[in-house]
Structure formats: structure tokens, C-alpha cells
Amino acid sequence: MDAILNTAKSWLTDFFDPAVKKEVQELIDNDTEELKDRFYKNMEFGTGGMRGIMGVGTNRINKYTLGKSTQGLSNYLKKTYADQQLQVVIAYDCRHNSDTLARTVAEVFAANGIKVFLFSELRTTPELSFAVRHLNCHAGIVLTASHNPPEYNGYKVYWTDGGQIVPPQDGEIISEINALSFEDINFNSNDALIELIDKDVDEAFIEASVANGNFNAKGKDDFKIVFTSLHGTSITAIPEVLSRAGYKNVTVIEAQAKPDGAFPTVVSPNPEEPEALSMAVKKAEEINADMVVGTDPDSDRLGIAVRNLEGEMEIVNGNQAMILMTKFLLEKQKEKGFKGNEFVATTIVSTPMMEVMAKAYGVEFKTALTGFKWIGKMIKDFPESSFIGGGEESFGYMVGDFVRDKDAVTSTLLACEIAAQAKANGSSFYQDLIDCYVQYGYFKEKLISLTKKGMSGAEEIKQMLVDFKENPVVSVAGSKVKWIEDYNTSIAKNVMTGEEKVIDIPKSNVLIYETEDGTRIAARPSGTEPKVKFYISTNAKLEKAEDFKKVSKELDAKIDRILSELKLG
């Protein structure tokens, strides 16, 4: 506690604003537990950058923690590109304080002699990724906490390729940041170096989104879409993209169209949560729409609902959307002709069906750690290869490589193209998905997330993962464990034969069990939230579409059994 108290007292110097000093002193005097949570550690970069609760303290998002990160990044950029006029681009989302924090970040860059392109109003994360290369910038920043609760904000760093920072840059930048004290932050802005941007970049991004996501699907005039931005940034792009691609029947949920960091109409602005799409689904039922699309606050992830076999709106999960999007893109590439250098990609905790499908098309399949920065890195690492598309189970997808992060703008258009074309063909998005299961096997997944907040929660998460490793699972739902993949040691071991393989992916705190029948259980801590996550994947043959419901129930029962065995149910 002494170290925490000393850290807190260091915020009582004249460098810090009077209001900040007052709040820290009140915490010291009156609230030991809150003081501990705010100062027991520094903000860290995770799979999605730096994300946390806003407020005073080293373990909070504020002008000083972001200022220090920006100062460290400025120092790193000046060392890396010593002979160049540095340029960065900054965007921000709808969250409380995002605009003022973005301005602070811009001022620190400008104080360090770096040219800044700052979006004049909120914009999507995919547009920021696009803008890095479009404006020939050395780096990009977006102020966002994605789908986290309203009290959160965050800071994601993008590199010259438009992708998020990855090793070795992330570690080197963190070292620069950690070498600084808060007093090293240069807040003395040169405002002449800050240029506001908007419509010109918007136009280029929207044109690129339509070019990459529009496949001239039939049936657009007869296809009804309900769209909700969930109070986020996608309202600045998706309606216009859909309009330019030829969709005229788009109903926007007006009650959720106004950007608002309080997210007043939803419990959580997370398209993974059915509740977030409930208002849009209700409207879809009222007007007999074909599809619902909802995006998270920074518009990098999308949730989709379509009509099932009974004609009712049903939400499809991220794995299901990814399968159909990838299948569609592979078919389009097949029509043009494969050159032999194409690849698709996903993450190690996403559905194994992606690999089965890629092999069926004779296309290379790559897997990465969780976090889209790793898929972006593949594109940079393999310039001779052609990226078709890829995604992850957490409702993110990327079409081509003009954006180097998950992109709900272009993916929304792609989803509509798939569904409109399917309807015109006498099928549906849902029926096409079932047909995929018949062709490649029915893979069904479930995610269990356990929230463990604060200092004690972090320790609990750490211990759960240790226990999961030190008390190995022997069998799952009657099927013996065959492979144990430990991404901490980079070793995959066949426990039946003793064979070991090296996992050629950066080390990470992930453990995966795979059984003889292909059932997979993965465990990892979230990189952006105080959660531990368990991913379960099961599969079965689906001989014909008519057996879909029967096999679906059988897989549900298997998943329930697994949850019970692992005491996660």
C-alpha cells in the first residue's frame, strides 16, 4: 500500500491541474479502496491498445496517461523516422470526453513538432485505419473504448501500414512510455501543426468501401434493411455507403442514431449482446424487413439478424457471419480465377470451420492470436500474398486490405449483398448458412465470459488460467483430449502419442484443448476487459438441410454437457 500511496502523492505536484490534485487528496483522505484501484498499476496496451475507465489516476484514462503515451510515441517516431517530417492522423468516437482527449493528444504531438490531421468530428475506426495510408501518415490514433460500458475510453495506435501496432513496435513504444515521468509530457502545443479534416477523407473512404463491398447483387430493390448505429460513429458512413451501393429500403433506428456516449437506449452498446439489437429487431418485425445490422460505437464490429426457417428474426453470431462472408468472397474470387497466392485468415479461438472451407477452395489459411492487429500484420508480413478476407468470432470482419482493421462499414455492405443475392435466388442468408453446414460440416460455438473486476479480480483470472493448465482436461463430453496447445510455451502436444509441435505464433496466455472428435475448448484472459473467456467449439456432420434442427439440438446438448463438466454452466 505504501507504493500505491507514494504514486498517488506524486500527483499532488504543481504539474497537475488543481482539480486533479484536489480529487487525489480526497481519495487519499477518504477512500483507500478506490485509491488502490486507481493507482495500483499503469494503463497497459492489450489486444486492442489501451483501454480503461476514465478518471484520475495511473490506472485510468485521462489527459496525463494519454499524454504520457503520446509523448512516448512521439519520441519513438522521432527516433524511427529521424530524417522525415512526421505526420499522424487522429480520430475519435462518441464517448464522453473523446473529443477533448483527442484534442489533447493532438496538442502533445504538435508540441513535439509532429504534423497532425485531426478529424473535426467523430469518425469510425475503419476510416481512421484507411486515413493513415491515404494521408501518408507515420501513425494514427483513435480514441475509443469500442463496446465497453460508458465509463470507459481508450487509445488505439496504428502504424504506417494502417494496422494496429504489433511486435516489435508495441514493446519498443511501451519502453519509451515507461521511461518517462508525467512531467516529461510536452503540453505546449504548436497549433499551426494541427489541421482539421473531414469531407475529403470521408469521400475517399466511402468510395473505397463501396468499391470493396459492392458485388452488384440482384434484388436490392426488394431488400429491406433495418440499421442501428447504437449511438455510435457508423451513422457517419453506413447509410451513405448502402445508398451508393443501391439500397433504397434502409430504415435507420432514429432513437439510436444520435451519437451519445451514455448509450441511453441499451444496456451495453455491444452487437454481441442480443439486447443491443432488440429495438432494431422489433422494427424489422413491424415492417417485415429482411435483415437487421447494428454496429458498436467505433464501427469496427457488426451484429446481424436475419429471418430463420420459420420466418422469425434471429441473430447470427460472429462465426456464422464470418463463414458466409468468407464463402461469398471465395466464390467471387473463384469466378475471377485463383492465382494461387490468396489467403483467408481468422484467430485461434474462432470456428475451425474456416480452415475446412479454405482447404475446400484450395486457398491458404492463416491463424493469428485474438485481436485484429495480428491479421493486419499478416498482410504486411506477406506482401506477395493476396488477402481475400477474414474475421474473428467477436463479430469483426475485414474485406480485402484497403482497411487494415476490422471494418463494420464495408462488412455491413457485404452482408447485405450476400442476403439480397440469396433472396433473389430464392434462398436466404440463413438457408445459405445451413447449406454451408451441409457442405463443410456443422460447427457450433459458444462463448462464456466471466467478469472479475479490480485488483482482486485480476488475480482471480490469473489463478483460473493457472488451474486450467495445471489440472489438465482429460476428456470432453465423452471424447478423449488429443492435443493440448499452450501458447505460453508455444508447444502443441499430442497427449496420446507424445508428439510435440512448435506453435509458430507469438506467445500469449491461451490454452486450447482439442479432443479426438474435433471439439475444442480455449481459455484466455480478455485483453481489453476484466474478463476471462472460454470458447467452446463442437461439430457434427449434417447430411441434409432437413436435419438442421435435429443436429443443432444435439450440439446444444453437447455444449451444455461440456459447460457442466467444466463447471461453467
From TrEMBL:
Transmembrane segments: none annotated. Residues 43-182, 204-305, 317-436 form the Alpha-D-phosphohexomutase alpha/beta/alpha domain. It comes from the Bacteria. The keyword Phosphoprotein applies. InterPro entries: A-D-PHexomutase_a/b/a-I (IPR005844), A-D-PHexomutase_a/b/a-I/II/III (IPR016055), A-D-PHexomutase_a/b/a-II (IPR005845), A-D-PHexomutase_a/b/a-III (IPR005846), A-D-PHexomutase_C_sf (IPR036900), A-D-PHexomutase_CS (IPR016066), Alpha-D-phosphohexomutase_SF (IPR005841). GO terms for molecular function: magnesium ion binding; phosphopentomutase activity. Its cofactor is Mg(2+). Gene3D superfamilies: Alpha-D-Glucose-1,6-Bisphosphate, subunit A, domain 3, Alpha-D-phosphohexomutase, C-terminal domain. GO terms for biological process: carbohydrate metabolic process; purine ribonucleoside salvage. Keywords: Isomerase, Magnesium, Metal-binding, Phosphoprotein. The keyword Nucleotide-binding does not apply. PROSITE patterns: PGM_PMM. It holds the Pfam family PGM_PMM_III. Belongs to the phosphohexose mutase family. This is Phosphoglucomutase. It comes from Kriegella aquimaris. The lineage of its organism: Bacteria, Pseudomonadati, Bacteroidota, Flavobacteriia, Flavobacteriales.
